[in-house]
Amino acid sequence: MVSVGAESSLVRIPKAGELVASQLRRQIVTGELEEGEPLPSESALMARYGVSRPTLREAFRILESESIIVVLRGAHGGARVLAPDESVAARHMGLLLQYQGVALADVYRARTEIEIAALRSWSGSESDLEKLTELVEEGRGLLGDPVEFAKLDTRVHQAIVDSAGSRTMSVMMGMLLYIMDAHNRLYIRTHGPEHELAVDQLAYRSYRRLLKLLGAGDVDSAVTHWQRHLHKVATHMLDESGTTLVEVLS
Known about the structure:
about 250 residues; Four Helix Bundle (Hemerythrin (Met), subunit A); two-stranded antiparallel sheet; 2 strands
């Protein structure tokens, strides 16, 4: 007799296609199979793993859904390796956030927390400061072009987080910025590019202020300044329109 609750302890055995996909995925993420490299022929893979053609193609479908291979049709077709792409993970995260009804404001709050944590660990290295300085100087020439300035703004925020030296934080930031970039494009389309000039000028001045504080080694003041800046950005972007993640990512 099976006791109540026994069902929850059952272990699901992976299907053969999932096991083959797992083996190929491991080869891709470890670099054994490099980007652009063709996978062995179907007959070779079937013989290697002892599976049927339908099972192998199920493995291919799994890996294609993860965007780490592409299967080309025709005489010169076959499966080729793709490098894992952060935007794929960002789209999945965006879908999950939409499904859970997460507010757009929560995305901005998470961005602030990650960015401020990165600034608190600022090492003061010359390379990080030089990179940020180059981006800010580039921004000067983009004032008046809201679309290009928005792209530059994304790079500034990413560079701040990258300076913390944590790849996990950097990847998380990239995923959040993917969503925020989509929101910014929608905002510009809705409000018109001329609406952004004054805001971009304020952002540029905030960049310069941040650089000055970091260059002086005053990390505490830099953190305080950047918190205020990010709060102003969120207040500006999260207007009374009630824009949702569904609208942003649709």
